[in-house]
């Protein structure tokens, strides 16, 4: 199965990399006079093959393909995606790619594409669509659907409301199971099968959940209220989507009802939407930690990518210039013992990496909620103990190596002490910075690698040269 | 709902932090003569409350609680977990915690705990159980179950086989829907409802899937084969579990059949198991990148934590000593212009962080499969262009700052050039190292922050001092 997919994708890659295919397409676009007939025939065959292959793929695979080719070829592929799957492709693509594809599409095409989508999908897409097509698009929906889309639009992305689906199968609790069955038979199929039907009272408030098994194994005369399960875990539209995702993971949920602030059933959360969210968050964390805006894509335009890295480079430069000025203060000591300049990076560098190890642990602990306000002090104590132990050990090793290299006992002793102190500081900073960022309402991973290496460098130089000035 | 959970957990934390509760428990353990009667009554009340509260929690929440308290209190809580949920708690806990809890439990208790679990859960746990109880445990299972556990034990953790469940509801394709219905009614309930029933032929080969809706909306005389859906996506026991998880995410699956190499249906994969896997992998990536073994837990014993960090500290020390020896070769130049010692860390540090930005992008691209062999060269071109642009820009800024600080045009020029070259190198290394690690069959994130900062330091110093030696 996977091998077949790989083959289709490499054939597509092969096609779009052919000069003549690109030319044929450009020609078709601009409707210029054709070249020699033989050429044109092969070219059209290639384009037809491309269209066939692309539309044989699942929308998620088309999106992946679009992400992994450069912008020009992306447009070429995008123009061959069928209208009925184009909406799904847009939804699967990452934000910058989606925006690029939308910019390159005609408004009319986009309206047509959107009409193939469900309400919650339209709501997900609407923010990125050109403003001029939205009124038309909304007015083409039936009244109830229009209201649903409008209400979904009002939820910010971190809220459960933005991730829920609102095309749901719900029944009222006074119906008999036979009534439910004939209702289902009329519909023909449940939207997106998960085996659960939500139950409300006459006023639309959530009262329970019915499984399809309940329908199968109980007598038809029974009422829904008699066989339904009580509502277990449910969410409010304003709950944090990330917390909801953690609950899904922890309690192994597949689907959960969502209510508004009046306990009215307004939608359902599905595990597949939350899996996307979790993956997005995990990836963001990695980029954010390295000091990248979470929007950067592998093949973003060069100028955009370059600018995306500026804020952290600038901060980095500021910190390292401060560190540099600290070294400058010790010019006197360095000119007496030039070996100090060579040994300078050692403590700072080891400190930086030791700090990064602690940061990674703390960020993970915060994400999994294992680290909470009550056990912070405990963690500080543990990390300080580890740093004392490792500082003593690796300080001794480094001091000894220095002694061997420079035959200078005092210099070795300076290294030992500097290493020990820097590792202690690095542990404090490593625990402190993510917790501080979190307390400030920021992502605890935000630029941590720049901040940690910057801080340990500055302190590391100061400690090492300060000790050298005192001892040598 | 979440607030209630938080309250229960803080009350438990409060109880286990009381000295008298711990003492009462220790006394109960050692069955020493009681203290004054009044004391004993309160103490027993506290312990009873603790037991009540702990067992009111979901096993996943108990596991989280155990992870976030220090070892002594962990034992206290663990001893109050009811036998019927203890197995689920062990399965939810991380590897080191699970191993600790098992070490502290009696063999008899563990056997009793295991008997509350399903076959695939026993298989997950068996590796960590004491060897002496396994034969007894296996022989207490019915013959068929025993074989299932044995076969599950043979799959390595990265395989689909290790993550599948094998207590599945399957029917043969010649059965009528009425037969299926009465079979289900006899069972009373499907294990872990997802709305799907797997279909096999007489020989046990997978031939399709039946939804519960199919049962509800079709006539009972029809045969399963007439209404079932064809098998869409399925996995083999030896497939990579990570790939399976990506497919679940991409195609929004909830459940998928697993077959052995003879196409016999042997189990199912569920989205909840794979969500755990994805989360585990995302967290591992973060730790591995910082140079931590993925096993380290927030509250591991100090000596274990300290040792866990040694390999990368050692590598780091080796690299930075090499960098230091490079600086040492330029002693002459530094003693002439001591300012060089102060400026030394700047290029290396900026290069390191720029490299880390690229690494984060590349690791993400490899994980999402957006980066494949066909578009690597493209990425190298893009990243080199970004580095050219940013190198020129930030080189000029740094050169100008140096000029301002030291009133030395040549020194400013050295900084500009050094910055430019180091950023170019950092981009190459940032793209190259994760791809190389992946090609070597390693995790592309493995220790990347140590490797990148080490390499950019070494090169950064060499470039900066080399240019200084030529120009100054």
Automatic annotation (TrEMBL), chains A, B:
Q: Where is the CBS domain?
A: 164-226
CDD domains, sorted: CBS_pair_Mg_transporter
Q: Which InterPro entries match?
A: CBS_dom (IPR000644), CBS_dom_sf (IPR046342), Mg_transptr_MgtE_intracell_dom (IPR006668), MgtE_N_sf (IPR038076), MgtE_transporter (IPR006669), SLC41_membr_dom (IPR006667), SLC41_membr_dom_sf (IPR036739)
Protein keywords: CBS domain, Cell membrane, Magnesium, Membrane, Metal-binding, Transmembrane, Transmembrane helix, Transport
The GO molecular function terms of this record are: magnesium ion transmembrane transporter activity; metal ion binding
TM ranges: 384-406, 412-437, 449-471
Sequence similarity: Belongs to the SLC41A transporter family.
State the oligomer form and interacting partners.
Homodimer.
Q: Which PANTHER family match?
A: MAGNESIUM TRANSPORTER MGTE
Protein's job: Acts as a magnesium transporter.
State what protein this is by name: Magnesium transporter MgtE
Protein species of origin: Oceanospirillum sediminis
């Amino acid at each position: 199965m996977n091998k077949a997919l790989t083959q289709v994708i490499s054939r597509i890659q092969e096609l779009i990399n052919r000069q003549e295919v690109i030319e044929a397409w450009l020609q078709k676009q601009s409707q210029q006079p054709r070249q020699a007939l033989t050429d044109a025939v092969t070219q059209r065959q290639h384009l037809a093959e491309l269209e066939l292959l692309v539309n044989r793929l699942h929308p998620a695979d088309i999106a992946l393909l679009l992400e992994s080719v450069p912008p020009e070829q992306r447009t070429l592929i995008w123009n061959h995606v069928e209208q009925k799957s184009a909406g799904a492709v847009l939804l699967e693509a990452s934000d910058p790619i989606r925006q690029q594809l939308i910019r390159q599409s005609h408004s009319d095409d986009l309206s047509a594409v959107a009409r193939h989508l469900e309400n919650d999908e339209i709501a997900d897409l609407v923010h990125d669509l050109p403003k001029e097509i939205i009124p038309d698009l909304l007015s083409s929906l039936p009244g109830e659907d229009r209201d649903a889309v409008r209400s979904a639009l009002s939820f910010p992305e971190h809220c459960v409301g933005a991730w829920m689906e609102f095309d749901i199968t719900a029944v009222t609790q006074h119906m008999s199971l036979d009534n439910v069955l004939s209702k289902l038979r009329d519909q023909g199929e449940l939207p997106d099968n998960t085996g659960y039907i939500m139950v409300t009272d006459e006023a639309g408030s959530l009262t329970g959940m019915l499984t399809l098994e309940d329908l199968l194994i109980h007598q038809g005369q029974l009422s829904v209220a008699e066989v339904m399960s009580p509502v277990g875990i449910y969410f409010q539209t304003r709950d944090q989507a990330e917390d909801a995702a953690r609950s899904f993971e922890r309690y192994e949920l597949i689907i959960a009802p969502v209510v508004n602030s009046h306990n009215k059933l307004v939608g359902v959360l599905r595990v597949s939407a939350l899996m996307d969210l979790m993956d997005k968050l995990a990836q963001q964390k990695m980029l954010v930690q390295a000091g990248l805006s979470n929007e950067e894509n592998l093949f973003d335009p060069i100028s955009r990518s370059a600018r995306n890295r500026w804020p952290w480079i600038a901060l980095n430069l500021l910190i390292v210039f401060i560190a540099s000025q600290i070294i400058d203060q010790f010019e006197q000591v360095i000119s007496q013992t030039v070996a100090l300049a060579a040994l300078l990076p050692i403590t700072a560098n080891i400190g930086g990496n030791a700090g990064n190890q602690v940061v990674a642990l703390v960020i993970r602990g915060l994400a999994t909620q294992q680290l909470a306000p009550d056990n912070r002090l405990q963690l500080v104590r543990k990390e300080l103990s580890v740093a004392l132990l490792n500082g003593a050990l690796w300080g001794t090793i480094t001091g000894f190596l220095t002694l061997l290299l420079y035959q200078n006992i005092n210099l070795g002793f300076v290294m030992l002490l500097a290493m020990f102190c820097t590792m202690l500081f690095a542990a404090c900073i490593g625990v402190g910075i993510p917790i501080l960022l979190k307390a400030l309402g920021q992502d605890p991973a935000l630029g941590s690698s720049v901040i940690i290496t910057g801080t340990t460098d500055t302190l590391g130089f100061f400690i090492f040269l300060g000790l050298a000035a005192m001892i040598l």
